[in-house]
Write a structure and sequence with these properties.
By secondary structure, the protein is α/β, with parallel strands linked by helices. Helices cover about 45% and strands about 15% of the residues. It folds into three domains: about 10-90, Arc Repressor Mutant, subunit A (Orthogonal Bundle), CATH 1.10.10; about 95-150, D-Maltodextrin-Binding Protein, domain 2 (3-Layer(aba) Sandwich); about 165-235, D-Maltodextrin-Binding Protein, domain 2 (3-Layer(aba) Sandwich). It is built from nine helices and seven strands; from the N terminus they run αααββαβααβαββαβα. A three-stranded parallel β-sheet has the order 4-3-5. α1 packs across α2 and α2 packs across α3. The longest helix has 25 residues, at about 65-90. Belongs to the LysR transcriptional regulatory family.
């Protein structure tokens, strides 16, 4: 008979944090542990699992199939643990939270993270607003939002906390030769972008101008769904 393994929740929390933050060094900082301590936890987790959970991918690490399975169960176990902690201690948060989200984040956070929070704290009323980045920052400055999850390049913004740095990349329709992007009749690169003001649009046009690549606005939309549809249709 195989003896069941009892996984350490602290180890699972480090594992999940490292995957979600994209770095176990960042996870160590977030959890207040040393990098070596987190590495030891990961080694312990793999020993308990009996299979590799991580593999080398370039300069970083990626999840194996077993790691993907472990991640899903780890999230469920941690969620149950946190809910049990709240229920047993009798902690009851009350009040209202006005939260602003980019459409990018709203697609992921609204059903998952906010759903978990609502179940754990049923007496907290969440007022979520999905809006463009500039509007969120304006409402935050005006006191119309309590907090906002937004893109920003200003690391000195008062009361702001940088959660992560993400690389920018170009997205376009499938082409026969990826090295030869589609051009319009005048030889300009058609752009699909948000209407101004837009941080990403500004970065994109600056990069094209520096590279000496002619461009033209092919499709402008205030909606992320509209941009995805335009790119899928091959408009830019």
């Amino acid at each position: 008979m195989i003896r069941p393994v009892t996984f350490d929740l602290d180890v699972l929390r480090s594992f999940v944090a490292g995957v979600e933050l994209g770095s176990f060094g960042r996870a160590a900082d977030r959890l207040g542990r040393s990098t070596s301590a987190v590495s030891a936890q990961l080694k312990k987790l793999e020993e308990q699992a009996g299979v590799p959970l991580l593999r080398k991918a370039g300069r970083g690490l990626a999840l194996t199939d077993a790691g993907e399975t472990m991640l899903a169960y780890a999230r469920r176990l941690l969620e149950l643990n946190d809910q049990a902690s709240v229920a047993v201690r009798g902690t009851r948060l009350q009040g209202r939270v006005r939260l602003g989200l980019q459409e990018d984040f709203g697609e992921i956070l609204l059903p998952q993270v906010l759903g978990q929070f609502a179940r754990a704290h049923p007496q907290v009323r969440i007022e979520a607003r999905v809006a463009r980045n500039a509007e969120l920052l304006e409402r935050l400055a005006a006191g119309e939002l309590d907090l906002a999850l937004a893109w920003d390049h200003d690391a000195t913004r008062p009361h702001g906390v940088r959660l992560a740095e993400l690389p920018l990349c170009w997205i376009g329709p499938a082409v026969t030769d990826p090295a030869a992007p589609a051009r319009d009749a005048d030889g300009a690169l058609p752009l699909v972008a948000f209407e101004t003001p837009c941080l990403f649009r500004g970065r994109a046009t600056e990069a094209l101008d520096r590279a000496g690549i002619a461009w033209t606005s092919a499709f402008i939309s205030p909606s992320l769904a509209g941009l995805w549809a335009a790119v899928s249709a091959g408009l830019g």
